[in-house]
# Entry
Amino acid sequence: MEFLLSRYRNLTVLLAVLLAQLLLLAYQVKSSADVPLIRVWAVAAVTPPARIIEGLRSGTVGFARDYIFLRDLREENQHLKQERDQLKLQKQFLESQLQTADRTRALVEFRSRTPSKTIGASVIMTGTGADSKVVFVDRGSASGIQRGMAVITADGIVGKVVNSYPMASQVLLATDPTFAASVVSQKNHVHGTLKGGIGRDTCIIDHIQNEDKVEVGEWFYTSGDDRVFPKGLPVGQVHSVHDGRILKDIVLSPTALESGLESVLIVLDGAHQAIPDPATPPATETYVMPAPPAENKPAPVTAPVDPTVGGAPQKPPTVSKANTEADRMMERYQKIGEAQNHVYGGVGSRVPDFNVATKPKPPAGSSAPAATTQPPAAAKPVPAPKSVEPPSQPVVPVPKQQ
# Structure
């Protein structure tokens, strides 16, 4: 460095002088915006590095902030997923409890209505076989359960007890191939035998001839002929009916096994019931309000008629129907007035004779004279009613003397 300065001393001094002169000129000269030129150069020289440095800083800080924020979101998302899973499990548990409560309530109501003596039991486990059609319930011989007793629900028959242990019992379901029960159709009263299907959750009805009439959708009930199930318990609806070589092929699904088993009833002492008639509609009670009380409407009040208004005197209204003694008397007086051509309330008319017994006038053109019969001497005069007063004679005013 010293060698260069000593060798190019003059050139170095010249460059330094020129640089100083340029700086002084830049300080003195101003741009069109009245800004010193040296400041413009300084800002132009510093702006690119400052922009690069700020970009690096903001990117680093933003990346760190986003990373921390996303990390918090990830943790919150995991927490929300755990809460969602817990709510799903709780919802399923509550739905299961609600269904169990509904079934238990239905069993209690059915037990109160059925005439058979039953005892409630819960399913505790099922058979271990792949095609096992047996279940175990928590009632055994200690509760009075014996082999061959019927197991039912409110929806229909379930099966029968095949083994009774002290604290549990083994129940053979109706879908087992070895199961059998006597049934009868609801509509046509066709008797048959209910048997379990092979490898499926449906049953078949055997021993029904092709000539017998069985319809799809028809209900089958227990007939009581097998001495296991009481008569009148529902079994299920027919899914399909086909004619075979001799016997019909009928497939039926037991309604008690369609929604799973949790609680059942074991029949201790069965009682037969009547099979419901499909044509009889269910009895429904309808509330009917009592009839409204009769209204005693008052008779219309007619305004009194002034005979002096409108020229000729007007006749009083005719009574259409005599309901009381006063009405009948008024009707009689009106007939007397009509017979004597008397107008009640007329000016200058004479008083009618109320002691005359009136008869209906003969028709026009009749030759028979109008007979007017006098009342017997012993007959007492009928007093005039208070409501009708005969008009008095007109009073002629007398002029005063002067």
Remarks:
- Residues 37-113 form the longest helix (77 residues).
- Residues 307-312, 363-382, 384-402 have pLDDT under 50 and may be disordered.
- Helices lie at 2-7, 9-28, 37-113, 325-339.
